[in-house]
Give the backbone structure.
Amino acid sequence: MHEPHDAAHETYRAALLDARLLIASGVPGVYGLSGVFEDVVERFDQYVTRVGAQFRPEVMRFPPLVSRAHYERMDHLETFPNLMGSVHTFMGTDQEHLELMRKRAVGEDWSAALRPTAVMMTPAACYPLYPTAVGVLPQEGRTVDLRSFVFRHEPSIDPTRLQIFRMHEYVRLGTPAQALGHRDDWIERGLDMLAAVALDARPVVANDPFFGRGGRVMAVMQREQSLKYELVVPITSSDAPTAVASSNYHLDHFSRTFGITTADGRDAHTACVGFGLERIALALFKAHGFDPGRWPRDVRRVLAL
Amino acid sequence: MHEPHDAAHETYRAALLDARLLIASGVPGVYGLSGVFEDVVERFDQYVTRVGAQFRPEVMRFPPLVSRAHYERMDHLETFPNLMGSVHTFMGTDQEHLELMRKRAVGEDWSAALRPTAVMMTPAACYPLYPTAVGVLPQEGRTVDLRSFVFRHEPSIDPTRLQIFRMHEYVRLGTPAQALGHRDDWIERGLDMLAAVALDARPVVANDPFFGRGGRVMAVMQREQSLKYELVVPITSSDAPTAVASSNYHLDHFSRTFGITTADGRDAHTACVGFGLERIALALFKAHGFDPGRWPRDVRRVLAL
């Protein structure tokens, strides 16, 4: 499929590869990062941590996996099946292994012999949290600081559309007012943070890319309820800016699934803000050039570069 | 299968969960980490970076995936098929999706409808490097600093046997002398580093857990050639200490596969040292207690805690 901004994507991608900020892996949307790129990711990540520290969040770090049993209880299989990453392995005998090797040798698909493991790639940093939060929340609710790689199977030549990337999230679990306040405050705070590193961000009501015919209805409903805001920045295009962060109100979606209640016994509401760390780095390289040593002084100060 | 040290593993695992240093995910060998645990991982990781900086390594950071096409050219499918993580997704139509949802609803296995993506979970931090290193090395060879999550499907109640964990590696590509020197120097350097944080480490000749009947022969050969050394530390048992780092000489294994040659036109040799960051943290918590604020002053100084 020819995308409208293919040429701009290809140009920026080629420049990033040429500068060796990105290292090709042979798979679209999967790259190695140079030390310079990784340093920008880490500096912005630390900036997020410093800003979020005022809320004294609990820090949790999950690997980029989520339990298959928990995944099955969420809606991802229904709403984003085409984006999932299901982890499979070989559980057979010596004899079955010989057959696997024979298939590889003659170029046949050997993957049908594999079996699903107990894990999936996680599609968001907050997915592994909810199953651990079962029960009654404290009066003041909870605020959790999460960061992990997340996987979304959407191969693209757009260097900002990665199949695997890091997301730094703050999740709020509490009353509707606590969750909604978190969502709205982080829209403003996120805009301030992006402005502080001289990125031209604005908030837009958005929808997730729900799968199939039914998905179109869900996208409309999500927009009508204004559940999802993205902070968008021009990277490869000014008329189609790229989401670098999003702030989402989940209502009682996750809480009802896993059984998370407020102190007064109602279903909790949850909300999250997520910063896409590689995308923010890509926006910074686009706006300020490929050498962070020559970025504007104020930006360098904010990032402690 | 009942392992000889099950009781000791279960005791340490329960203590870690009770202290909330580990957060259960519902899957054996997959845990969330508390902020305290993560901080120890990051501090040791930074210590590795400081020590390795003397070699002025190139820094590369790959996500925890490797191209399936590259994976197929390596030996992992032959030697460790039971440890692999193959990433699959749904590539079907709306109609096929309805059938998938029907299967989930009645508790049937829906995973057979999935198709393999272009990626695998990487089993080692250095796997994605070799395909990018194709060609002729400079006279002085190359030294590369890598860190990533790695996946190995070996569910266990032993809290030190994680299915996914971080490995900080230094890889040397060059002449046989350059590679072997790297391997041997890092055995000594690794012992010094572990001694500096008051861990009682020693080097042992080791073998990888090759699969099946053929694997037993490969394990004997690897030991006879002394290609792999592990640095082991008592964690849950003093008579069966746990490998927290390893230093390996690959001969021309990866270089012949991908075509990496020295300046004088011969097949390059490669070697790597890898520090298992979660295991080192688990060794530190075992040796010095669960509160890093009360660890010995010298250990805190080395880790900049």
Observations:
- Chain A has a mean pLDDT of 96.
- Chain A touches chain B through 72 residues (CB under 8 Å).
- The radius of gyration of chain A is 21 Å.
- The longest helix of chain A spans residues 176-196.
